[in-house]
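Summarise this fold before class:
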Amino acid sequence: MKWNSIVFKLGVVIMVLFLSILVPFAFFIDRIFLNVYSLYLNENIKDMANRLSTVASTSMKEDPYFYENITALTNHDVIFFNENGVIISKNVLEFKTGEKIPKKWLQKLQDGKQVEGERFEEYTYEKFYYVGQPIMDNNNFQGGVLIFSSIDEFHHKMHAVRDWIIRAIITAIVLALGYTIFLVWRLSRPLLKMEQATREIAKGNLDTRVQIQSNDEVGSLAKAINDLSVELNNYRVNRSELLANISHELRTPISYLKGYAQVIKNGQYENEDELKIYSNIIESESERLAKLIQELFELSKMEEGMIKLYVQSVDIEDLVESVVQKVQLKGQEKGLILSMEIEQNLPIMQTDGLRLEQILLNLLENAVNYTDKGEVNIQVNKVKKGIQFAVIDTGLGIPPEDLPFVFDRFHRVEKSRARQMGGTGLGLAIVAELVKHLQGEIIVNSKLGEGSEFRIIFPLTIRNESEILDQL
């Protein structure tokens, strides 16, 4: 196991957490038990001294057997003394029968006060806790009683309790260690799986998936890694397809340019009219090539979020009329009817007018290119979500199997016709990206042989450029 691995770090954190709870808890338990036992011992001895003084207060007998019989009822060493402080019971510790108790004790007891404290036995090296209680008769000092209780016994009991506490702590630490190992294993296993999966993805194995079935943050991360793998795989496929499509699209105009340039260079033409035809082909293919490169560049900027929007007030009616006028001549050449249906009193839109014009122009040109007879109609009306634009034609229509792909780059329903019209296969892809940047939504409906309908809904007001880029 590596010292800097997440498994080790997580294990250390959990163990520190356990210890930070167990050790203070054990310490407080020890202190509480010590205080409670000390209080119990003190109160017990004081209560015993009070009872013995009460029993002896009825008459202070000089017979030592009387006091021996009383002290036999206790587990402590007891001394009785008379009003002069002379010990009248049997010998206890260094206190002998017939001797006097310390003067400072006697003075305090004569005042009716209780004495207490600790005393060390020099010969046995044993420590005692003592309590002295005066014996009063009608407020007259008749003597007193001293009780000595060994603290060593108390210490032995405390050591026994502490031994049990230590055993409990060790047991808890062992259990905590086992739980920590299990918990770390459970938590780190999915992370290690995800690490292995990401390394496989980094090597190019984009079919790698993380199999983690959970609804928590770890499961969400695993799902994100799987989604990333899918997106990277799609990106790789799309990139390969894009490069193949670009090379295919560039091959035709470049072949024309090279072929007819060589014809002109080698003088393989019969007259000026033929030379003019070849020159026109070169010019047309150059324009087509330049348009393809420009649209690829523009589409790339859109997909990378690098497009700049200039939000302004847009008069919808003026914009639509301008777009129709630009396409009018081309429609008349094909004998088509271009019509407009614009709802009255439409509100002013706050959007990028140039980009909106580009969208409508692309859709109208596309409709004119793929409509041989009939009409192309543009409708504008207000809806709940904003303003709806609809471009409807009576053209050839789109087959149902092609509808999901109409906004893909280089997708063409009729490839031969698209080349005749000079199409690049990027028009609708650009439209879809622009609609996304202008926060709109686009819907296409079509019936083969009857025509197509493109409906776009834009909000009346879009946010500023930075907010749009952040969203994208």
Observations:
- The longest strand covers residues 126-137.
- The longest helix spans residues 6-57.
